[in-house]
Amino acid sequence: MQNNQINNKKRHVILALLFLGWCLSYLDRMAMNVGIVEIAKDFNLSPSVMGVVLSSFFAGYALMQLPGGWLADKFGSRKVITVAIVFWSIFTILTGMAWSLMSMIMIRFMFGLGEGAYPAASSKAIADVFPKAERTSAQTIMMSSNSLGGVIAPLIATPLLVWIGWHNLFITIGILGVFVATLLWYYLSPKNMQVETVEEETVQKVSFKDVLKIRTSWQLAIMWFGVSTVVWGLISWMPPYLVNVRGLDLMSMGMLTSIPALAGAVGVIIGGQLIKSLLSGKEKYLAIVSFIIMIASLYLLFNAPSVSLVITYQAICMFFHGPIVAIIFSLPHKMFSKNVIGSTFGMINLGGMIGAFLAPMVMGYLIEVFNGLYVSAFMYIIACAVLGIFAAAGLITKKNLSSEAHEGSRDETVI
């Protein structure tokens, strides 16, 4: 009993540190989205060029998803997590030292490469540390950090941006990252990560090539593409929209954008509980309904007559993105073997990061082409969300990995 309590305590500490790592990564990203208004003034950037700067991070981030998952499976989560945080923290510091547009784009690209290894490695750590029955809850809690980071980041980044400027903002966040990396290296030791309880789990011999043949992994990747397009489209362009179109000052904008993020964090946690209990095996229906409400909220958002309604509709949209995130990042723990979990999450996250890479750039181009009108940009992210509905409609969540992999090996057209 005492050993069990010690093991639970270790797991909870590790989960808290992984959660902190995600919050840090989100703070780094949000600092750019909050600071882009001032950066655009300093470098005299047009909307389309602003989109390129915002998307340069996601280009590196997306490229690292599959290698990051493979590295986590090959070398273990501890090494990959620590190296990733140190690497991206160095380039966060360099962001504050950028001297030209081109240097900013290259630094943000390298920053994305560093951060891109963290998602799969952190999910791999969940699989290594937690018993199978607890992984869905642990993964859901960890992923709620994305939305919670969206709450905390504007509250931290916006005042710092106003007080010390965007250059010093990035330098400060980068130094914090090195400190967090040191903590994670210390606590993610093999002794602390070892699960001493006996699990009734059969580790199937499934290669990543087999995972590529499984329809579910592709469907989850497409769903994540749709969700990420909406989320990062809003995160990237709501600050300029609220300042330039709705007339808010920087401080007010930063405070208000934390409200939808808080709604998103609550949505992820509630969604995780629903698919763990009441809606287990019915995940696709929850995903479809959530996508539909997201789309309706987006349409109402850009037609809203007041700022308060804009924020309300964005909060509704972010709340219902939560259950979809919980589904995307919990199903692999139920369906896939532990020996390929890093690579599987790398593939799924690649789909999402392609959406996140395209969203700021495409939306910036559309805003510039239509002379500053944001309607076409919002219609783009709505169209990508519709694509997510079609992917969710095909989910067969009750099948396990072995049966679907067997079918995939017999008939590769199942993809």
TrEMBL record:
This chain belongs to the protein called MFS transporter
Species of origin? Peribacillus asahii
Q: Which GO terms describe its molecular function?
A: transmembrane transporter activity
Q: Which GO terms describe its cellular component?
A: plasma membrane
Where in the cell? Cell membrane
Question: Per the database record, which ranges form the Major facilitator superfamily (MFS) profile domain?
Answer: 14-400
Matching Pfam families: MFS_1
Q: Does the keyword Membrane apply?
A: yes
Q: How does it sit in the membrane?
A: Multi-pass membrane protein
UniProt superkingdom: Bacteria
Keyword line: Membrane, Transmembrane, Transmembrane helix, Transport
Which chain regions cross the lipid bilayer?
12-31, 43-64, 80-101, 170-188, 218-238, 250-272, 284-302, 308-331, 343-367, 373-396
Q: Does the keyword Transmembrane helix apply?
A: yes
Q: What is its main location?
A: membrane
